[in-house]
Amino acid sequence: MVKSLNNKKMTILIAGCPCGAGNIGDDAILEGMLRTIRIISPDIIIKVSSWNPVLTQEMFKNYDITAIYAQSNKRILYEMFFSGAVIVGGGTLVDDSYDGLAFPINHTVKFLKMAKWLRKKVFIYAIGANALHSQRARNLVRKYYAKTAIITTRDDQSKQVMKGLGINDVSVLRDPAFTIDPLDEASAKKILRLRGIEKSEGSPLIGVSVMNEKMKKVFRYKVEIAKACDFLIEKYKAQIVFVAHECRPSMDIAAIRETIEHMKNEPLILSKENYHPREMAGMIKCFDLTIGMRMHFLILSAVAHVPFIAISRIDKVNNFMRLFGVAPVGHIDEVQSQDIIAEAERILQDKSAYKTRIKEGLDKILKESEGSTNLLKGFLSSKK
Q1: CATH architecture for residues 185-349
Q2: Which fold has domain 11-179+365-381?
Q3: What pLDDT does residue 216 have?
């Protein structure tokens, strides 16, 4: 058991990752982090900042956490004051392409400023980092990340971004979501049946994740995905299931509707809000194949040992695919339906070979993740 210096149970605060905001990927990160922390110490007291504390506390009640509103600065400061350590992460926390400095830069720096003022030790947990466009963003990251106790990124490319900012003492820890244990098959199938989704003999079940890329004003990829889905339905009698990985109406749900508008055949839709990441991984395990743009949809596919096809939209998707020695079928700017179809046919004709590759890649990742447990344990046990 990890204890504080006065021999009482240690309290930690997890902040930065926007869990509770409707994105299963962010909740999957938190699930992996909590799982690792509970392996280290079943008794440690865990506080988590969340965009929806009621939802987060209910979703992760098995880990005995207390969720607090991420925008309540007074409450965050109070909880941090009584914490022995602060964990910031995971997710893409070094980036200024989405909403300028507002998110995630200023959001994350807020927690680092508080921790610095209170002289709390900080562990930056497996974050993603993209090249920054703003000089102010670069200055903020240099100022508040540079003197952090331990900094870890989820991939080598993010590490290089941090090094380019002059932050050299960085370790690589794989995304915590890789450690998720999918829901059992019977329970996952029950959830799917309640949504009207059930696998038929001889008809492959294919999960598809699309999202809106408003920041790039690119929409053609939806037409190409629609064409590929129609082909798979007509040639293989496939059941296409569109999966909303992000529940905000303007995001995945809107993208699904816009894609379906270009289809001749009617697909199925899995769009209920707030599935637990283990539930989503369990449902994905029932699929024969997935096609996705979201990195954590692809990670959950890997965790479920289900062959996946990636359409690249951002560096983190390419970085993820490198872990398994494969490449995306194309970027959203240029992806062609025939490339999606060709890869899908290769997988459907030899699923076992693809499953073997996934298992080998995942085993290597999980082996590397053992190091993250030791690194985090050492951090929590240290005096500073």
Answers
A1: 3-Layer(aba) Sandwich (3.40)
A2: Rossmann fold (3.40.50)
A3: 57
